[in-house]
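Entry 0007
Protein: DNA 3'-5' helicase
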Amino acid sequence: MENYLSQLNEAQLAPTLQKDGPMIVIAGAGSGKTRVLTYRIAYLMSQGVDAFNILALTFTNKAAREMKGRIADIVGDSEAKNLWMGTFHSVFAKILRFEGHHLGFPSNFTIYDTQDSQKLLGSIIKEMNLDKDIYKTKQIYSRISSYKNSLITVKAYFKNPELIEADAMARRPRMGDIYAAYVDRCFKAGAMDFDDLLLRTNELLTRFPNVLAQYQNKFRYILVDEYQDTNHSQYLIVRALADRFQNICVVGDDAQSIYAFRGANINNILNFQKDYDDVKLYRLEQNYRSTKNIVGAANSVIEHNKTKLDKVVWTANEEGEKVKVNRSLTDGDEGRYVASTIWETKMNQHLHNSDFAVLYRTNAQSRAIEDALRKRDIPYRIYGGLSFYQRKEIKDVTAYLRLILNPSDEEALKRIINYPARGIGQTTVDKLVVAANNYGKTIFEVLQQLENIDISLNNGTKNKLKDFVTLIESYQVMNQNANAFDLAEHVTKSSGLIREFNKDGTPEGITRLENVEELLNGIKDFVEGQIEIADANGSLAEFLEDVALATDLDADKGDPNHVALMTIHLAKGLEFSHVFIVGLEEDLFPSGMSMNTRSELEEERRLFYVALTRAEKQAYLTYTLSRYRWGKLIDAEPSRFIEEIDDQFVDIITPLKEQNFNPMLDASIFGDIEPNKIRFAKPKTATIKRKDKNSKLENFVISTPKKMKPLAKSEDNTNLFDHKLTVGNIVRHQRFGKGEVLKIEGKGGDAKAEIKFEVGGSKKLLLRFAKLQIL
Ligand code: ATP
Ligand code: MG
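Output (structure tokens):
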């Protein structure tokens, strides 16, 4: 065992070496909270605590794996393996496998992912004949999710006039009924959604004192990372489990609480000292991650929040470069700035792609960055998109596996009953659902007992349904003896899935096949890898659980030398040498949807604090003057967060004196402009010389290309926007493609053309934006 304790400073040692009792470590970013948790676990083991008695809850499975790896380095692999470590969801899913039967769930219950849950809600809304534009599945889903995370069961909902009233006000009087139907259908399907994993664990621990006692006894030492982002449901689980021995250590940073919108409750950290007796409070102040400039910048921003705990963060690290702020004209320019800076910095400082991360507020912002990185051949990876396991073809295969294990799984069944096509139509499926509801049976039971069920289906259809049952049953028989890999391989071939994916021979089809192959490889790894572990048997159920809970951050496949692109929410706890925070504009970051109350704005500011503190050596902040959002070009103002940084830590590098031609000021807007003669006098006006030899320089306000207007009107600019377009012209539009001009109306800036596009039909376009190319 190496002398790992020497790698901690004194402040870090104190909580690490306190073996028993409740304790909380509150400290700023990069001060070693996660390191303390990790080393504390190793220390506990060195003091004779059995690994089986330690529970560590982390924010991502990736974090848990890294922590386990580090502990394995210290205490050895075989001991580290016995630790219970993972996210709340993965740890409690395991416990529910063992104990779910108390609540009426089979041990092989399915975990519905968001997609499954929303599909189920969609069918319920349809069956109840409700307006799907009012009852939007996504909104209903997040509403149900927030009930569950606040432990509001269906029963509690109906006893709460305020909730009922609120939903009625939101024009959703049937919300409670949908909630009830959803819970009922999940239960009948032997399925739990993500929130159930916490809700049902709470139910288990409250209703069954013996079970609670058993796990209290098992988890004598409990550690929680990122405690500031636990929700009410998670808080109660931890409190129940820790109640007996009170050996609970939580670490967190109130300034990094960024999940209030998903029910995280900052009070969990603020009230911790009230929840347990004799809580020891530790603070860490020294940041080891970042330069003085980054730490200083982050501190100066978070100062603007009123609600916060007093905290000091300082660093002995080098001064470093100042935080660089760059202004671009458009999101495309912003992408190019990011890509070229990465490219140059990499060359000049001999860095790797993986030293860089680009963080954004919303996923949609990644596209412009991706385009620019691709143009420069810089490898990148987007985290947090559709995870591998949510791809259609993968969900198709796993739906078969899910149904084999749990024939009650309604969503799996609906997905594959007619895929590949077996001539079983949607009407038939609808009838089956109705029959299942009427008879209080699962759909699969209805299928098995077709002859005894009152359902109007012709014999042909009945036979097809019977064939489907026979197929699934044959897989179930195979599952009793074969291992998960053999079964999965057999299923993909014999069900016709492989043939289906292969059918069109398109590149997409080939990719789908490759993905299925990758899935099979994964199952093989799983089967082989798990065999050594005593309490896991590499079963299909365990594999599917892993799949259901895998986040994109977990499956770190492919070349590790890539630039990481992700939302700030996902970046929590991570660190990178060079970090770009893009899209620092009002309405985007802070988000336009989070500026109504001080608390929302303060959460946005904490988010910015999280982003900035991911950087070790260099942080870049970028914003643009105009950006495409919701398909429209909109005006953008720099984010207030930039201004909130103390001047001494930032370096404004924006070169706006002379710019190359801005594609947004496309020549097609102005007719004959000589593109690279655009000069910027003031940041927001452009001096433009038109190609016409005799023309003078003209000033244009460019802050909003949409509202672009000449400052000094020249004689001939009335027809500035008319182009030379005439009816009958064949034109090309950037997005809509080729089309024919049917009609032109209006003059000058208001000139519009009606164009019939080959794809998408007729559209009326304002010429000054349309950027049409005459063919
Ligand atoms: P965050 O708030 O972002 O989650 P944290 O408080 O959990 O940060 P860590 O991730 O544990 O901080 O540590 C930040 C960085 O500093 C890591 O790279 C870690 O290895 C390093 N570090 C922490 N403590 C020390 C120390 N005593 N000596 C050297 N490096 C340290
Ligand atoms: Mg951490």
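Curator remark: The longest strand covers residues 615-624. The two ends are 74 Å apart (CA to CA).
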